[in-house]
Amino acid sequence: MNKKTKRRIKKRTKSDIILLFTFVILLLLVITLSIVALTKKNEAKNKDVDITIPVTEKTIDDDISISIDISNLKENAIKEYKMKLTNYHNKEINEKKLSYSINFDVANEEGVVIKLYKDKDTKELLNNSKELKNLSMKKNKKQETIYTVIIKKKATKEEKGTNYLNINIKR
């Protein structure tokens, strides 16, 4: 072997091995963190709503009741609750138009303010009422409607019956 070949085939020193090992560890760390970040992003994307309710012929015979715990709300505190209503379940879409209504029930109505908004509209739908009537889901075409319920607790003292807000969706 000549001198040029000996220079190219250089034995790795301890510092070279340590640097290579550090590089591999950092590469694995970057890959792991990228996977975690993508997973969290997908979880956040799927958490746009608190509950999805299929309003279909097969899933709702009469009505659905949802209870929201408002016992942790402090005076003048606000809680936002989003529910997505769909006219399909799995891949089955309604074959006929379905009408429904949304009703809010709380024992102490003076202690709680409820506001309802549809999709990204800024118009409040309830207008001091506790029921929204004459709503409908399309037939044969996918439809998703997101309702945002804003709950504000006014009462300063604990009153019996104000710990839950019941939302009833009736066909």
The tally of helices reads 2
How would you characterize the largest beta sheet? 4 strands, mixed
Q: Identify low-pLDDT runs.
A: none
Tell how many strands the DSSP assignment holds: 10
How far apart lie the N and C ends? 90 Å
- The CATH architecture term of the largest domain is Sandwich
* β-strand amount: 35-45%
**Total count of domains:** 2
Overall average residue pLDDT: 81
CATH top level of the largest domain? Mainly Beta
Taking all Cα atoms into account, the compactness measure Rg is: 28 Å
The CATH topology of the largest domain turns out to be: Jelly Rolls
Helix percentage range? 10-25%
Question: What do you see in this structure?
Answer:
It is built from two helices and ten strands. The protein has helices at 3-8, 14-46; strands at 51-54, 63-69, 78-86, 88-89, 92-93, 98-105, 112-118, 131-137, 144-153, 164-170. The strands form three sheets. The chain has a four-stranded mixed sheet, with no helix packed on it. The chain is elongated and about 95 Å long. The mean pLDDT is 81.
